């Protein structure tokens, strides 16, 4: 099912897109003929929902995951709009990684092969800039690139964007995860105001909404829902007799459900440290977050949890305010919240972005009246559950999917996310999909990489150079 609504108004208006045949679209004959030869038959849901709007020249926010056919959606839009006889850069497509940019460029070339004399150029980091400058001197119609390298060319004056009439932000949420906000701002500032902007994103966090408001003109937002991704939260309530039983319940439930990201809410600062210490002693990667942490320590905790290199965050409600993580797999209430509205807010941190969430609450006999009050407040009966059976104390705990590497250089040393990405994915480097969130602070930077690429990534950072100099890097 697709749904579409105007982002500024925020009111959701459901629409059903029955159009499925590309021939129903006002596309040029050479594009339609080529689509047929490529084996494109029926449109995917994201294509059927977005292409009519894109072809009308509207700004569009499309929420869809990789493999949904989004490249063809914006690709056909920009090719339909292209004036081949004007040998100027008319469309700019920004992607978070070189691999995605190369993939997009290849698909655009396939879609455009019936249009003669069209030039599509890739501008990505991790590759020599000299040949790119040479290619730009010969002109291009469409640029597909990574934010850092596009900014480099804009600063050097080797890329002219005065004639860009269409901007595409592909996998915008991932670009923000990798720290490209400043680069995006710098690029948008140089583009013509009177342009069409298309934003494609798998998720829709607050940062994406802020970008849309800043760079788009009355965008139409489209969300394609996967049939299995209906938003829901499953709640489970476990009676316990002691804090030791709560800790054991935590261990058993973590081992059973194995969430990549789980938050445990505690009512006191001391409790967060106690619970985090207990989980670490069992082998879990757990971090404590409370009001007594210094800002530097708090930043490091949030970086590691947000980039999935720590599985469990044990936090007080106050310390967790402002925590903006969309894909929390599970929430645990170590004790029932003192305020029932707080309980609802805690639980609401899971099951976002169309995912199914899990919420587990431990309660004692003294807290039972709160559970009964919660049932009355929500109008839903609350059933007591049994903790998983079996003694799993000797079972090896699971590790988070990512590892954090710290670099002793940051904004004050002119280190940018693009520099880090380029250093990791350059010659003999790791694949771009193995790189997670990148966070650049004043004097340090943090990058998440998949666990199986951590050793190679650390060697690349330690032996390579950024900004013409070497930086110390270590795993934390």
UniProtKB/TrEMBL annotation:
Gene3D superfamilies, per database record: 3.30.70.330, P-loop containing nucleotide triphosphate hydrolases
Keyword Hydrolase attributed: yes
One Pfam entry name: DEAD
Motif (Q motif): 20-48
GO cellular component, one term: cytosol
Catalytic activity from the UniProt record: ATP + H2O = ADP + phosphate + H(+)
EC number, as in UniProt: 3.6.4.13
CDD domains in the record: DEADc (cd00268), RRM_EcDbpA_like (cd12501), SF2_C_DEAD (cd18787)
GO MF term (any one): RNA helicase activity
Domain DEAD-box RNA helicase Q: 20-48
Domain of life: Bacteria
GO biological process: response to temperature stimulus; ribosome assembly
Domain Helicase C-terminal per the UniProt entry, residue ranges: 232-393
Domain Helicase ATP-binding residues, every copy: 51-222
Keyword line: ATP-binding, Cytoplasm, Helicase, Hydrolase, Nucleotide-binding
Claim: ATP-binding is one of the keywords in the record: yes
Protein family membership: Belongs to the DEAD box helicase family.
Matching PANTHER family: ATP-DEPENDENT RNA HELICASE DBPA (PTHR47959:SF1), ATP-DEPENDENT RNA HELICASE RHLE-RELATED (PTHR47959)
Record's protein name: DEAD-box ATP-dependent RNA helicase RhpA
Organism name: Marinobacter nanhaiticus D15-8W
Lineage of source species: Bacteria, Pseudomonadati, Pseudomonadota, Gammaproteobacteria, Pseudomonadales
């Amino acid at each position: 099912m697709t749904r579409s609504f105007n982002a500024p108004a925020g009111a959701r208006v459901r629409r059903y897109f029955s159009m499925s045949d590309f021939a129903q679209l006002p596309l040029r004959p050479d594009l339609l003929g080529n689509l047929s030869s490529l084996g494109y038959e029926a449109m995917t849901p994201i294509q059927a929902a977005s292409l009519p709007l894109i072809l009308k020249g509207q700004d569009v926010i499309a929420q869809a995951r990789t493999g949904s056919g989004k490249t063809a959606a914006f690709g056909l839009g920009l090719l339909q709009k292209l004036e081949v006889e004007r040998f100027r850069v008319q469309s700019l497509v920004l992607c978070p990684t070189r691999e995605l940019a190369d993939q997009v460029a290849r698909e655009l070339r396939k879609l455009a092969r019936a249009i003669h004399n069209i030039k599509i150029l890739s501008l990505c980091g991790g590759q020599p800039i000299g040949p790119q400058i040479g290619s730009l001197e010969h002109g291009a119609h469409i640029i597909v690139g990574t934010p850092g390298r596009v900014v480099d060319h804009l600063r050097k004056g080797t890329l002219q964007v005065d004639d860009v009439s269409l901007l595409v932000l592909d996998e915008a949420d991932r670009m923000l995860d990798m720290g490209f906000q400043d680069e995006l701002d710098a690029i948008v500032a140089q583009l013509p105001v009177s342009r069409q902007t298309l934003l494609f994103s798998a998720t829709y966090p607050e940062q994406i909404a802020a970008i849309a408001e800043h760079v788009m003109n009355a965008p139409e937002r489209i969300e394609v829902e996967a049939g299995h991704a209906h938003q829901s939260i499953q709640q489970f309530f476990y009676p316990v007799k002691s804090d030791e039983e709560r800790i054991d319940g935590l261990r058993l439930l973590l081992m059973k459900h194995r969430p990549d990201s789980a938050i445990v809410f505690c009512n006191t600062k001391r409790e967060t440290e106690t619970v985090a210490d207990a989980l670490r002693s069992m082998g879990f990667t757990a971090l404590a977050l409370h009001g007594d942490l210094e800002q530097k320590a708090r930043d490091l905790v949030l970086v590691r949890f947000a980039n999935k290199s720590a599985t469990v965050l044990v936090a007080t409600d106050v310390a967790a305010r402002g925590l903006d993580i969309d894909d929390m797999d599970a929430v645990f209430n170590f004790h029932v919240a003192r305020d029932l509205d707080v309980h609802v807010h805690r639980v609401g941190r899971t099951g976002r972005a169309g995912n199914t969430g899990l919420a587990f609450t431990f309660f004692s006999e003294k807290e039972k009246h709160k559970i009964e009050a919660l049932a009355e407040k929500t109008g839903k009966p609350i059933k007591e559950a049994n903790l998983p059976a079996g003694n799993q104390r000797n079972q090896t705990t699971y590790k988070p999917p990512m590892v954090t590497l710290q670099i002793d250089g940051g904004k004050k040393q002119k280190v940018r996310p693009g520099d880090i990405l380029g250093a990791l994915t350059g010659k003999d480097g790791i694949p771009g999909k193995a790189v997670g969130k990148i966070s650049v602070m004043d004097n340090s930077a943090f990058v998440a990489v998949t666990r199986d690429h951590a050793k190679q990534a650390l060697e690349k950072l330690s032996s390579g150079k950024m900004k013409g100099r070497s930086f110390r890097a270590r795993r934390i």
